[in-house]
Design goal:
The protein is mainly α and about 110 residues long. It has a domain of about 80 residues. It has six helices and no strands. This is Cytochrome c domain-containing protein. One of its GO terms (molecular function) is heme binding.
């Protein structure tokens, strides 16, 4: 009888467990207000990109450089973990940060 109860209890626990992906449990809350470079994007870029992308051919140190490279930036930050072209190297932006950058493009890439 104890073995039967153990099997039933185990089955209930296994059925109750929910397997969800990272995207399903992440903060993907839509951003209601207009996203701008100075208010929203600049801090993300400075904290995650500038250490490698400072003055040079791939610099991302100012509004125009980020704006002119937005398609490449979105492509690189959106790649799956393990992709050698994913940025930032050795980590990832949060889904909320990726949403901010993506919405900035959709909102027209405004500076202020």
């Amino acid at each position: 009888m104890k073995k039967f109860i153990y099997i039933i209890s185990s089955a209930v626990v296994l059925i109750a467990c929910d397997s969800r992906t990272y995207e399903e449990i992440s903060d993907n809350t839509p951003i209601a207000e207009k996203v701008t470079y100075n208010k929203d994007v600049k801090a993300i870029i400075e904290a995650n990109c500038v250490s490698c992308h400072s003055p040079g051919a791939q610099a991302l140190t100012n509004y125009n450089q980020v704006k002119n490279n937005i398609d490449n930036i979105i492509d690189r930050i959106s790649r799956p973990t393990g992709d050698p072209l994913k940025m930032p190297q050795g980590g990832s932006l949060s889904p909320a940060q990726i949403n901010i950058i993506t919405k900035w493009k959709a909102d027209g890439l405004t500076e202020n």
